[in-house]
Amino acid sequence: MSEETIVLKNTFPNFSNELIQEIEANSSFQSFKAGEVIMRTGQYIKSTILLLKGQLKIYREGEDGEEFLMYYLQPGQACAISLICSTKNQTSQITAKVVEDVEAVSIPIALMDKWMMNHRSWYEFVIYTYRTRFEEVLEVIDNIAFRAMDERLEFYLKRHAKACDCKEINLSHQEIALELNTSREVVSRLLKKMEQRGLVNLHRNQIELLM
Amino acid sequence: MSEETIVLKNTFPNFSNELIQEIEANSSFQSFKAGEVIMRTGQYIKSTILLLKGQLKIYREGEDGEEFLMYYLQPGQACAISLICSTKNQTSQITAKVVEDVEAVSIPIALMDKWMMNHRSWYEFVIYTYRTRFEEVLEVIDNIAFRAMDERLEFYLKRHAKACDCKEINLSHQEIALELNTSREVVSRLLKKMEQRGLVNLHRNQIELLM
DNA sequence: CAGCCACAGTAACATTTGTCACACGGGCAA
DNA sequence: TTGCCCGTGTGACAAATGTTACTGTGGCTG
């Protein structure tokens, strides 16, 4: 069994052996460097990507280049949107940027439709992905619709801490502002207030969560 | 062929004959009156609903009972979320309220999983539904993330006009405010400005679109 | 070391949105 | 007719957020 097969099996433990074989036979391994944009709004989707390693950021782009974070993709996950574009030429509604260097498997769209019918484990993976992403997006809507910026910031920090499984968040205020679609000054202001409330300690390029 | 079969065939023209037969054999026709809430956040989903007639409003509920409109369901459509809950006991993340008296077919969840495998036309319907709803929700995010209330109001009015295919919108400012999660006064203010710009004519309980 | 740059803090102000208070008028019911 | 309720219009103010401008500080580099 090849190195890559092992990684694939470990990262997607629910895939059947036959499915793994099909993937190996029909798809290509790819890697991307941090900062690369691997899918952009308006582009045609021609393949879907299974993440083996690294981290992707999926966000919505505003007309003036604003970003709005939707969610992060971790190893063992795939982009929900690219899973469901059927055979028609569908353009992407989102942008995907590499946060940490990525290794991934790229699968041609044409195959996916077939696999849905022939591979139960693929079908379940797609359904599961779609459902969880939909829920995540609903939560995003809740946040921007019902919550003020201070709560959203708290939520954002907690989510981040959970994702990297540590209490230190290495981001500048500017980067956070971009993802919440606000301005650096607002983030600074709110973080300072959180520090006064004893929720965080602030350092240069680092926020230490105390909650 | 029964009356109901005909309605079903007309409303879902892409369903195969075998699928229609299965639906008839395994599901129940139901009707709901305007104002009824037929699915509520936190409830277990035990069936999905195919809309034959009337209109449903799908929205997200805030903690204090605020509403936030996601989209409307028209005849020929189904709630995306209820389509993908697999067999597990999944609770609803949204609330569905009847806008116009509804006639619908209720399908037990257990069957849907089987149909996905056995009925190509059902599979395509589910995928299509999921994709279009996801896109719609992305558009909602765009609106609240990137646009101010005046633009959101314009967008809302246009969408409404398109849905009922006429230029007169019979809603009070209060109702609109609820769906955009703002206050009546704000809606009044913005509508007045739109009137001054020549975009609408305002009447009691009616907004006439001029764009 | 000097200069530069990215990051952070903050004051002052503008704008948008939410809230409160109240007035007006149409239509319906007693 | 009278009174009342609902929908609407509007002014005044409060609060949140966005914007501008300026300061300080640490670290890197020439």
UniProtKB/TrEMBL annotation, chains A, B:
<dbReference type="InterPro" id="IPR050397">
    <property type="entry name" value="Env_Response_Regulators"/>
</dbReference>
<dbReference type="Pfam" id="PF13545">
    <property type="entry name" value="HTH_Crp_2"/>
</dbReference>
<dbReference type="InterPro" id="IPR036390">
    <property type="entry name" value="WH_DNA-bd_sf"/>
</dbReference>
<keyword id="KW-0238">DNA-binding</keyword>
<dbReference type="InterPro" id="IPR036388">
    <property type="entry name" value="WH-like_DNA-bd_sf"/>
</dbReference>
<dbReference type="GO" id="GO:0005829">
    <property type="term" value="C:cytosol"/>
</dbReference>
<feature type="domain" description="Cyclic nucleotide-binding">
    <location>
        <begin position="11"/>
        <end position="77"/>
    </location>
</feature>
<dbReference type="GO" id="GO:0003677">
    <property type="term" value="F:DNA binding"/>
</dbReference>
<dbReference type="Pfam" id="PF00027">
    <property type="entry name" value="cNMP_binding"/>
</dbReference>
<dbReference type="InterPro" id="IPR000595">
    <property type="entry name" value="cNMP-bd_dom"/>
</dbReference>
<dbReference type="InterPro" id="IPR014710">
    <property type="entry name" value="RmlC-like_jellyroll"/>
</dbReference>
<protein>
    <submittedName>
        <fullName>Crp/Fnr family transcriptional regulator</fullName>
    </submittedName>
</protein>
<keyword id="KW-0805">Transcription regulation</keyword>
<dbReference type="InterPro" id="IPR018490">
    <property type="entry name" value="cNMP-bd_dom_sf"/>
</dbReference>
<keyword id="KW-0804">Transcription</keyword>
<feature type="domain" description="HTH crp-type">
    <location>
        <begin position="147"/>
        <end position="211"/>
    </location>
</feature>
<dbReference type="GO" id="GO:0003700">
    <property type="term" value="F:DNA-binding transcription factor activity"/>
</dbReference>
<dbReference type="InterPro" id="IPR012318">
    <property type="entry name" value="HTH_CRP"/>
</dbReference>
